[in-house]
Amino acid sequence: MSAEPTTPITHLRYVGIAAPDFERATEFYRTAWGLEQVAEDGGIAFFGSPAAPENYLLRVRKDSAKRMDVVAFGVRQASDVDALAERLGQAGVRIDREPGKLDTPGGGHGFRFWDLDGRLIEISSDVAERTARELEPKESIPRKLSHVVFNSTDAPATLAFYEKHLGLRLTDWLADRLCFLRSGVDHHILAIAQAPHVALNHVSFEMRGLDEYMRGTGRLVRDGHRLLWGPGRHGPGDNTFSYFYDPFGNVMEYTTELEQIPDEKTWEPRVFELTPENSDQWGTSNSINEVFIPAQFNDPDQGLWTPSPV
Q: Is the pLDDT confidence value at 298 over 70?
């Protein structure tokens, strides 16, 4: 069996969104969701976790309209940034910003390009890390950014783009509706869903463990936040899930215990059928059809093919 191609991508670094009510957004992510606001500059708030060395995991920018600004992936070193930018440019991929110094918290070296659907993607290295600590038992706040899911009108084509240009590797399919891609041993850092329009499907944050995941879910429910789907455990990825809306209709997830790929170089992608057991192994969640399917489609993204101002 041949080894899979290598990828320069090491991890998912952060997701950037824009929100029309900046104060309401920052309040939600700081208090309800449990992230730590690490910086604010000119209508942009940066949120991290005390357990994550990553400088920030989520950024929220004040804007008149809701949109996804940018999704950032990390690479090991500046030469990987430069080589990837050159390779994408030669392949005809539209570059937004050429490689250079980043002026966001943590600095670093990076560039930006648009994927085939018009999403803005950042690749960076040498971003300064923050001092991190282990979360305590029962500390029900996100430990790190787990994954992001995109909606695409042509999921196979979007999958092929990320395989070809970023070297991400296919882990599994859920029927022909959702594919999962990885850069290392985590089951996925990116998933692509077949949908009626291009949008952000959801962003997932990993909790310390099962108890902390349940406590975080319960905290949001007690505070009056609508639980869209969960708590449960998926088939593909074997991870737990609880999905909530943020104040603007973006779907956010608490998860934990994401499947690890034991020998990723010899992994054969699986195809999971669309069954209740593969949606939720435990059978504890509400039906996926009740609320979550319409919720995950989200609004059509207003920021496609548009540079983010920051």
A: yes
